[in-house]
Amino acid sequence: MKIYVLLFSVIFLINSCDVRKRDKIADDAAKQQEQALKDTTSVQLIDSAYNFGKVTDGEKVEFSYRFLNTGTKPLIVTNATASCGCTVPQKPERPILPGETGFIKVVFDSKNRIGTAHKTITVTSNAQPGFPELLLTGEVIKKE
Fold it and tell me: 43-141 — its CATH code?
């Protein structure tokens, strides 16, 4: 019985040490991202609004907003959110280096969205001043 208690104690100690190591790795990654965000840069939008015209109910609209890193530090996009669940933005996974063009791809699902569509996409990054809101507009017409 004592051997089982001892074995359990050893396993518990080994696992608790591993947790601390994983926490340190996560903390280091968070500190690196925080530092990167302190290194601000500037951004120039090439596309800030897109009007997709008229689409039929159920169609999906895809568009990639372009932007240019006009600063001297890498541009890190940390988040991109839309005003509605029917619009899904995809942020770049890697930093955009100075002088490079980046893209925020947006997919709008028009299913059950008949009428005028006016969606906004909010982008969070280390750009100063920050990204203005991106606009996606158009009209969804009923299927015949």
Answer: 2.60.40.10
- Tokens for 141, please give them: 């017409």
Contacts of 66 (CB under 8 A, 6+ apart): 45, 46, 47, 101, 102, 103
Q: Are 97 and 74 in contact (CB under 8 A)?
A: yes
Cβ neighbours, 10 Å, residue 51:
11
Q: How far is CA 55 from the centre of its chain?
A: 26
Q: Which residues contact 34 (CB under 8 A, 6 or more apart)?
A: none
Q: How far apart are CA 28 and CA 57, in angstroms?
A: 47
In order of 3, 15, 16, 18, the CA distances from 6 in angstroms are 5, 14, 15, 19
- pLDDT, tens digit, for every residue of 95-135? 999 999 999 999 999 999 999 999 999 999 999 998 999 99
